[in-house]
Design goal:
The chain is an alpha/beta fold. It contains nine helices and 13 strands.
Length: about 325
């Protein structure tokens, strides 16, 4: 037994000392902070075991490559696509020096998240949102988009190719399709218990309301914040979802934890859940009501809305008939 353990242990390469110290700190942070305690303990043990076996000895001469490697490894170990490691030696917080800032800087080129607004036949609107930038950045574009679709009889909300973003933008998008004073659509909890609920937002654009048909499109490129919109509205019975299962990233990130060597790890610390299901979409994704191919999703949604509108018109005629 002792021989097997000794054989499994690998010497630390001379240039990997900082990396090994950082990995030890990553395991500790995961065990202390990851939102699901059981998963946290098992994952931390797995990281320590892999470290002892020399599984992380690559990229010790490239800090950014090491961060990318560890991000991929930890996502596989935790089965959580939100956790990430970043090399940011000049920053006190991860995300300020690299991809997050690049994403923010690209907001204008991405039309602040509003990719397409179109009026289809039958007075059905189509709105494609590809990012949820911070609300202060996105609100003018979002307001213009929701103003344009506000007079339609039904709406297709396309959330495909949307990798996520800010909860402060996701939240009012949900409420656009809910009645004022509705039950809070998503609660949040940490390992310490339920967090205070977010308040109903004061919308900066017309409320679409609850009476007109709403179809939401998702696929595996729909991740995190847009999944919250789709899952919440589907759980309430407010929207019908088309497409294929979404990416499955429900957990929300905490503050960055600084590590030896200038790296940071950011760990999911909050679990959202719907009061209608007591669950969320972590790992499973949002499961469509109607599974369709990428090419057929818009057409299928349009046909469903048209049928809903025709059914309403027929019912209205019956009610008003002498």
């Amino acid at each position: 037994m002792i021989t097997a353990i000794l054989l499994a242990m690998q010497p630390i390469p001379a240039d990997c000392t900082d990396e090994h110290d950082a990995i030890t700190e990553m395991a500790e942070a995961i065990e202390q902070k990851y939102v699901l305690p059981g998963t946290a303990k098992r994952s931390a043990m797995a990281v320590r075991s892999k470290l002892q076996q020399g599984a992380f000895n690559q990229n010790c001469n490239d800090s950014e490559a090491f961060a990318k490697q560890m991000t991929e490894q930890l996502r596989n170990i935790l089965n959580d696509g939100h956790v990430f490691v970043e090399y940011a030696p000049k920053s006190s917080r991860a995300g300020e020096d690299d991809w997050l800032q690049e994403w923010r800087d690209g907001a204008r080129a991405r039309s602040f998240g509003v990719r397409q607004v179109e009026r289809l036949s039958g007075n059905i609107s189509y709105l494609h949102l590809t990012d949820f930038f911070e609300f202060s950045v996105a609100k003018k574009a979002m307001a213009s988009a929701f103003e344009l679709v506000s007079s339609s009889d039904g709406l297709i909300l396309d959330l495909r190719q949307n990798p996520g973003g800010s909860p402060e933008t996701e939240w009012p998008v949900q409420w656009t399709f809910m009645a004022s004073g509705s039950t809070i659509p998503l609660h949040h909890e940490t390992r310490d218990g339920k967090k205070s609920d977010m308040k109903e937002p004061a919308l900066q654009w017309p409320r679409y309301g609850t009476d007109r048909p709403l179809a939401i499109l998702v696929d595996k490129t729909t991740f995190s914040a847009p999944e919250a919109v789709a899952y919440s509205l589907q759980a309430q019975g407010r929207a019908v979802v088309f497409g294929s299962p979404s990416g499955g990233g429900a957990h929300m990130l905490g503050d960055a934890v600084p590590l030896t060597g200038g790296w940071h790890i950011v760990i999911p610390e909050t679990r959202p859940y719907s009061p209608h299901t007591n669950g969320n979409w972590e790992g499973t994704g949002v499961i469509p009501d109607f599974q369709t191919s990428k090419e057929d999703a818009v057409t299928a949604a349009q046909k469903w809305i048209a049928a809903e509108l025709e059914s309403k018109r027929a019912a209205s005629k019956t009610e008003t008939a002498p």
